[in-house]
User: Fold these one by one.
Assistant:
Number 1:
Amino acid sequence: MLIDDYAMHSAVASEAGFRWAAPVDASGIAGYSWALDAADDTVPPEEISGADLTAAYTDLAPGRYVFHLRACDGAGNWGPATHLPFTLEGQQPGPPPNG
């Protein structure tokens, strides 16, 4: 599965959202498992996190993250994980006040 529909509106943020298209499978898709961490090769557990085509995280600290996603088909077979790295830079200091 390929995460091909995502947008980084700003690297200066504390949240991240993801949206993906359902893969084609003869038995249909039962749901998805996802995880967010800093490792490049995490495989989400074989437990459905949800059936929607979106995931969102809030209150993230600045740093490097990797979003991991895999699908489970209608027959209970889990597909391989896909991984999407990204970096949140955190809030930049504003200009000094005029005084």
Number 2:
Amino acid sequence: MPPPDDPGLGRLELALDKVMAAAPAAQAVKAAVRAGKLAREPEDTLLERALKAGAIDEAALKRIREAEKGRDDAIQVDEFDSNEVRPRGNGEPEEGSYRPERAVNPTRAR
């Protein structure tokens, strides 16, 4: 198993571990919402309200926050400089490449 700081599988495994550790706490929050003890909205304050209502404790809140951060970190994509993702040349397809507009109207000029 790769180490947790590995940017590939290690990062995913770490996120999974955190999500699994937080699952019982997240389930307790869902149960409190379903039972009508907590309003579902506003969602951005749900965890704090769950803490105040006694549905979770401080340690559970911390596990949920760490799981959210780990999940967010795991789904981030690499950053690229805008020059790296621009089309090369003038943006026109290479000569002889497939051009859908020619398939519809073969006489259409470039």
Number 3:
Amino acid sequence: MGLSALVYWIVGVGGYLMFKQRTAGDLLRNFGGASAMGLRGAYERALKLCYGAAILAAVPLTILPFYSIVAPLLDPHQVSVVQHKG
């Protein structure tokens, strides 16, 4: 979870520092996409890749607790995926 937050923070601060007053609410809208060339284009693609990686890393962190709560409700005889140590 901390790694995901760190990636979000890096992308957010990087986007703000790059666009300053022109920063849109959705940082990905600020980037030129395929029209950006050279080092700036590589930087923009790297930021988009990091943003996508952060989202992909956050999905399992959201689904696993949901699954461990709902699965026993659907099948009470099923063993929980997450073992709690008490």
Number 4:
Amino acid sequence: MLWSEVSANWSAYQRSVKARWPGVDLDTIDGLDGDRAAFNAHLGKALGLTPREADEQIDEWLRAPLPLDPASSVRDIAALSESRAEIPGGANDMAAPARGRTGALADN
């Protein structure tokens, strides 16, 4: 992934940053607005890394598998919530016990 993609969607990547570097302060990270040099400096200060070490860790993080769209799960949850309005009320067929051909409860 390119840093420009991360920078353009900085707020969406902050959880991934915190997961990778638990020692960073989220309030500070939020204020960096995707500025890589400032992020590098913050990593160095927070974790005791040289600028080169911080840069290597950032590069490694960029090469690691990350969600294509880290905000997608938020949108998925919202879409699922909205779809509830499309489900008619009443009995849930999936929750009803299975019945045999005679209408008697089936032995499972």
